[in-house]
Amino acid sequence: MNHTPATTETGTRKRAVLHFTRHAVEMLLAMVAGMIVLEPVWSFAWPGLAGNVTASALVMATNMSLGMALWMRIRRHGWASIAEMSAAMYLPYVIFMPFFWTGLVSGSTLMMAGHVLMVPAMLAAMFRRRTEYGA
Predict the structure, then answer these.
(1) Tens digit of pLDDT for each residue in 32-66?
(2) Domain ranges of the chain
């Protein structure tokens, strides 16, 4: 096989993209695990939580952040990276909460927007530290 600089660079780039993608998928799975594992704890500790949209959104972001943070520590990521990824979980909710509080969007819209927009927020945090995540 001819290993010219171009083919070596292409192979290195493919590995970096694969590593980045793998990390993103791991983070999504850790977020889901955090939601599944911690939701019953919150339901038991705070029976009226479901009736408070703002608190529910923040608890959801917390559950996902805790799942991600645990997995990131297992994978030996630093605290700064963990803090940025956790902030990415809260940012979409924080942006949309004033619209919910003023009645411009419904609670279900707040929750949906938070869930959908946290993925690009997480990817943005990963691109910010792309050398750490492989891209």
Answers:
(1) 999 999 999 998 999 999 899 999 999 999 999 99
(2) 5-133
Check if the beta carbon of residue 120 is closer than 8 Å to that of residue 88. Answer: no
C-alpha to C-alpha distance for 133 and 135, rounded to whole angstroms: 6
Amino acid, res. 93: Y
- Distance, CA of 31 to CA of 39 (rounded, Å): 12
Under the banding of pLDDT at 50, 70 and 90, the label for residue 3 is low
Place of tokens 């990521």: 77
Which tokens hold the place of 109? 């819209």
- φ/ψ region of 76 (left if φ > 0, alpha if ψ in -120 to 50, else beta) reads left
CB-CB contact of 91 with 121 (8 Å):
yes
Q: What is the DSSP letter of 104?
A: S
